Amino acid sequence: MAVMTTSSTSRANPDERVVMTNVSWDAFEAFLIKRGESGPRVTYLEGTLELMSPSRDHEGIRRFFVAVVDEYLDHLGIVWDGAGAWLLKNAPKEAGLEPDECYLLYDPTKERPDLAIEVVWTSGGIDKLEIYRRLGVGEVWFWIDDEITVHVLTEAGFEQRQKSQCLPGFDFSLVTEMLALPSLSAVRKAIRERLASR
């Protein structure tokens, strides 16, 4: 039987989250079918299922962050694709999730993204790095309280790094600077001007 809890936070506009335990993989798959293409984002690890509906604040940070990364990738002139909240899952490893954003670099036909981005607006929940490790995603960036941490997958697991392995020249201070702007249009204009001057 599934046990359900909700999470709380001190933020004024928290994400809505529900965590259920003792959820079988078959029950997880059945939920995905019933949910269809829209609904709460899912995270699953060894019988624990989290459903999350992001707040407007969460989505605003995600969109600003993604705009900076998108413009940077275009500036580099490499082939890339953004796959959004692509459902990634592996039944034998009992792991699955939908990232806030993910990217395929150089070859858009890959079966797994090279890079995933996570905005942590409401704390708590399932260990997403463990899920990404089981899924074989090579790099994950977390935004938490205006700080961005970089985690690179190695044979020993994820290691926190100062620089990205996927995009070694990426300046994370640009994201923090752009998040202070009032609109997505302002972010896009400012980041294009900044990159053009480099």
Q: Which tags fit this structure?
A:
alpha+beta; about 200 residues; tt1808, chain A; 6-stranded mixed sheet; about 30% strand; globular; 6-stranded antiparallel sheet; disordered N terminus
Topology:
Layout: E1 3-6, E2 16-21, H1 25-35, E3 41-45, E4 48-53, H2 56-76, E5 80-82, E6 88-90, E7 95-97, E8 101-105, E9 115-120, H3 128-135, E10 139-144, E11 147-154, E12 157-161, H4 172-179, H5 184-196
Parallel strand pairs: 9-10
Antiparallel strand pairs: 1-2, 2-4, 3-4, 3-7, 5-8, 6-7, 8-9, 10-11, 11-12
Brief account:
The protein has 198 residues and is an alpha+beta fold.
Description:
By secondary structure, the chain is α+β, with helices and mostly antiparallel strands. It has one domain (56-196): tt1808, chain A (Alpha-Beta Complex). It is built from 5 helices and 12 strands. The chain has helices at 25-35, 56-76, 128-135, 172-179, 184-196; strands at 3-6, 16-21, 41-45, 48-53, 80-82, 88-90, 95-97, 101-105, 115-120, 139-144, 147-154, 157-161. The strands form 2 sheets. The protein has a 6-stranded antiparallel beta sheet, with helices on one face. A hairpin with a 2-residue loop joins strand 10 (139-144) and strand 11 (147-154). The protein is globular, with a radius of gyration of 17 Å. The model is unreliable at 3-10 (pLDDT under 50).
